[in-house]
Design goal:
223 residues
Length: 223
C-alpha cells in the first residue's frame, strides 16, 4: 500500500516535469534543429566546395560522437575557454546541433527525391528559385520527410533524459530526486519510463494524424 501511494505521489511531479521541461525543451530544440538541418542540407547540395565541405564535416563529427559527450563538451568544456552556459541553454545547444546534423540527411534525401524535371518546369514557367522551393519542391519533399522527422521528434523526447546529467530538472532528474529521498529505484525508474511512454504514445498518435493529412493533401493536388 505504501508503494502504491509513493507511485501516486510521485506521478504528478514527473508528469509536470515532462510538461514544463522535457516537452518545451524538445519543441524548441526540434524547431531550431530543423532550421539548422535545412541549412546544412542546402550546403551539402551546394556546388560551392567550401560550403559543402563545412556541412559534411559538421554532420560527420556530430553523427559520429555520442550526444552525452556533446552535452559535456558544451556544459563542462566551454567554460575552460570563457564561455559559460547555464544547464538549459547548454541542453538546447547540444540537442539543436544533434538534431540539425541527423535531420539534415533526412531533408537532403527528401529534396533529392524530387524529379529534376520539376525544377526545369518551374524555370520554364518563369518562377525564381525561391518560388520554386517554397511553392513546389518543399511541399512535396515534406511528405517524404515527415515519417523520418516524426521518428526523430519522438526520439528527441527520450534524448532529453540525457540532460539530467547536467542537472536539468526534466523527468529523469525529477525521478532521481525522489529516489534520493524514498530509496525505491526500481519502482520509480519504471514509473519514469511509464511517463516517457505516455508522452511518446501521444506524439506517435499526432505523427500518424499529420502523415494522413499530408497524404490526403498530396492526393488532392494530383487529382
Amino acid at each position: 500500500m505504501a508503494k502504491l501511494q509513493l507511485v501516486l505521489d510521485s506521478f504528478w511531479p514527473m508528469f509536470k516535469a515532462g510538461l514544463t521541461i522535457s516537452v518545451p525543451l524538445m519543441l524548441v530544440s526540434f524547431a531550431l534543429g530543423l532550421v539548422l538541418a535545412f541549412a546544412l542540407a542546402l550546403m551539402r547540395m551546394s556546388k560551392i566546395a567550401p560550403l559543402k565541405g563545412i556541412a559534411w564535416f559538421v554532420v560527420w563529427v556530430i553523427r559520429g560522437t555520442p550526444l552525452l559527450v556533446q552535452i559535456f563538451v558544451i556544459y563542462f568544456g566551454l567554460p575552460s575557454i570563457g564561455l559559460v552556459l547555464k544547464p538549459i541553454p547548454s541542453a538546447i545547444m547540444a540537442l539543436v546541433i544533434s538534431q540539425g546534423a541527423y535531420n539534415s540527411e533526412v531533408i537532403r534525401a527528401a529534396l533529392g527525391s524530387i524529379p529534376k524535371g520539376q525544377f526545369e518546369a518551374c524555370k520554364a514557367l518563369g518562377m525564381n528559385k525561391l518560388q520554386t522551393m517554397t511553392e513546389v519542391i518543399i511541399p512535396q519533399a515534406a511528405l517524404v520527410a515527415v515519417p523520418s522527422l516524426g521518428n526523430s521528434f519522438i526520439s528527441l523526447l527520450k534524448a532529453t533524459s540525457l540532460v539530467s546529467s547536467i542537472t536539468v530538472a526534466e523527468i529523469l532528474m525529477t525521478a532521481k530526486s525522489i529516489i534520493a529521498v524514498r530509496f525505491e529505484p526500481l519502482l520509480l525508474y519504471c514509473e519514469a519510463a511509464f511517463v516517457y511512454l505516455i508522452f511518446s504514445t501521444l506524439l506517435t498518435w499526432l505523427q500518424g494524424k499529420l502523415e494522413k493529412k499530408l497524404g490526403k493533401h498530396l492526393v488532392d493536388t494530383r487529382v
